[in-house]
Amino acid sequence: MRIGLFTDTYPPYINGVANSTYILRNELCEMGHEVYVVTTYPGLGGHKWNEDHTVLMLAGPELKFLYGYVATSPIHLSAQEEVRKLNLDIIHAQTEFGVGIFARICAKVMKIPLVSTYHTTYEDYTHYINFINSKTVDNIAKMAVAKLSRLYGDSSMEVIAPSQKTKEMLLGYHVRREISVIPTGLKLDQFSPDHFNPDFRQELYDRYGITENEKLIIYVGRLAEEKALDLVIRGFARAIEMKIPVKLLIVGGGPDLEPLTKMTKQMGIDHSVFLAGPQPSGTIADYYRSADAFISASLSETQGMTFIEALASGLPLFARRDEVLQDLLIDQETGWYFTDEEDLCEKLAGFVQISPERMETMKERCLAIVKPYSSVTFGKRVEEVYLRTIEDYRHQYRIDSIRIKDTLVQLYLISNQDEEIRLYVSMDDFYEMGMQKDGTLTSRQIEELRVREEAALAYQKCIRRLAVKDRTCKEIYDFLTKETGCAINVINSIVDRLEEQGFLDDERLCIHQIEFMKKAGYGHDKIVRNLKKRGIPYEMIESSLSTRMDDERENAQKYARRIQQTHRHDSVRKTRDYIRSAMIRQGFSSDLASDVVEHMDFSENQLREDDNLRHCIQKATRRLAHQYSGKELKDRVFRSCVSQGFRYEDINAAMNETEWYDEENQRF
C-alpha cells in the first residue's frame, strides 16, 4: 500500500503523537509498505521535502506556549498537488487540527479513504485558551471540543483509539464511526534493562549529586499544567522534609519548565528535585534505566506511552488512578497508586524499604505486563484497519433518497457500480449513524443493517399492534414468535426495547385491567385467571390486587344485587342459590359469596313469593298439560315448583286453590 501519515508533530520533536507516528511509519515500512509523512516545520513559506522525499513538511508559526507546536494552515494548494502525485491508497490523520484538516481535504478531493487516530484528550487542555480562568469559558470550550471531535471522527471511515478510555470518551462525544482500540506499540528491546549503561548512570549520579543509598524517581514527558507535576513536587518536598532518601529527576520541556524550576527553588528543594529539560531522544532509554521508579500524576493521558516505556525499562510506577492504567499498574505488583502529596510521601517511605529481592520480582512483573505493547503488533493491527477501510471504500453506497415511515426510515441506495437497493432502518440507527442524503454506507454496514432490518420491521408491527390495544410482554413475545422469522435473541431485544420505551408495561396493564374487571364485577379468582392467561406473573397480579382488596366485598355486593334484579320472578331460595353460584363463577371466593348472600335483603323477593309461585304453577301447567293430566299432571307441576326452590307447604296451599281437570269424569 501507499500510505500517507498526516501529523502536526514528528521527530525530532519529542512527544507522544510524534513518537507514535514515527513507530508506526517504521513498522509499516518494515512490512513492505510505501509510507509518506506529511507534517510541519516552523517558518514561513510553503512546503518542502526531506532529503529522501518521504517527509513533506508544511510551514507554520511555532507556538511557544504549546511546547513548540506548529500551527500550520489547513490550506496548502501546492502541497495538495504534491500529495496527489503520491497516488496514496489511504490517508491516516494523526491529529485533528492544521495538518489533520489538510488530510481531510486531501482525502475528500482525491477520493482517498481516511482513517484517523484520536491521540489527545483535548478537553484537558482547554486551560490554554481560558486566560481569564472562567468556568463558563471552560464549559463552552469543552462543548466545542466534543462537537469538533464528533465532526472529525465522523469525517473518517474508521477511528483508532489508543485505549479503551479514549474509545469511551469518543462514544460519549457520539462519534458514529467504528472505533478500534489499538495501543501504540514500542520497540520494547530499545528500553530493555539488558542494555543498562553503568557509565551513563554514574555520570548522571555525579551530575546531580545522587548517592547510592538514595532512590532516584524519574519523570519523562512534557511539562504542562495537565501533567500535575506541582502535585508530585509537593509530595517530594514532604518526603525530603521527613528525610526519606529519594530524589526526583524531571526530563522534558514545555510551558511549565520555568515555573516549576522557580517552584523548586522557592521551596528550597532544588538540591533534591532536578529539572533536566528536554534531552536527545537517543538518551531517553538510558535515563529510564538509570532510575529506580517512574512517576506521573497526569490524568489526561489517552494511552500513557511514558508509563509503557518505564515498564519496558523494568521500572515500577507511581501514578494516580486512571482508566488508562488499569491494565498496566497492578497495585503492589507493578507500582503504587497515590491520591495526593501526603499519600505520595507515604508511598515513597514504603518504597525505600523494599528489599532487593522484591524489587527484582517487581522488575520481572513490569517487563511481562508490557509484552502485548510491541511495535510489531501495533503495525499489524493498524494494517488490518487500512485493508478493511480500503475494501469498505471500494464498496460504498450513496444514500440517494430518504423516506420516513412511522418509526422506520426507508433508504434508497446506489452503489459505485450503479446497483440500487432499498433498505429499512430504525430511527435509532438512522440518527446514531448520522445518515443523511448523499451520505455513504459501506457494504459491511449494509450487511449489518440487513440483519437488523427484519428486527426493525418486526418492531414496527409491534408498535402498530400496541396502538390498537395494550398488550402484555408475553402476548407480544408470542406474536413475534408466530408472525415473524426473528431469532429468539432478536425477539428478546425487541421486547426489552418496547419495555424501555414504555410501550410495554405489564405492571401498568395489570393495574388497569384489575380496575376494569372489578368495575365489571369480576372477583379475585377470575381476575387472577384472566391475567395469568395473558402472561402476567402471578406475583405481580397478587401484589397489585393486595393493594386493592378493600373493595372486593363492595364489588361482590354490587354484583349480587345486580343478579338479584334479574331473578325477580324466582323463588327466594332459587335466587339465593343462583346468586351464590354466579358469584363463584365470577371469581369471588366461596366464603365471600356465602357471606354476601347471607346478609342480602330478600324482603322484596319474599313479598312476591306467592305471586311468583302461582306464576310458576301456571307456567309449568301450560308446559306439561299436553303430556299429562289429572293427578299425574298435578304431581309433575308440584315437582317442577319444588325444583324452582319453593317450599312444600306453600306449593300445596297454592295448588289446592287451583282447579285441575279430571279426564275420567270429564270435569274440573
Instruction: For the largest sheet, list the strands in their spatial order.
Output: 3-4-2-1-7-8-9-10
Helix content: 40-55%
Largest sheet entry = 8 strands, mixed
Question: Which structural category fits the helices and strands?
Answer: alpha/beta
How far apart are the termini? 122 Å
Number of E strands: 20
Number of contiguous helices = 28
Rg over CA atoms: 43 Å
Average of pLDDT: 86
Describe the structure.
This protein is of the alpha/beta class. The chain is built from 28 helices and 20 strands. The strands form 4 sheets. It has an 8-stranded mixed beta sheet with strand order 3-4-2-1-7-8-9-10, with helices on both faces. Strands 13-12-11-14-15-16 form a 6-stranded parallel beta sheet, with helices on both faces. A 4-stranded antiparallel beta sheet has the order 19-18-17-20. Strand 9, helix 5 and strand 10 form a beta-alpha-beta unit. Helix 20 (524-533) runs antiparallel to helix 21, helix 26 crosses helix 27 (630-643) and helix 26 crosses helix 28. The longest helix has 26 residues, at 443-468. The termini are far apart. The relative contact order is 0.06.
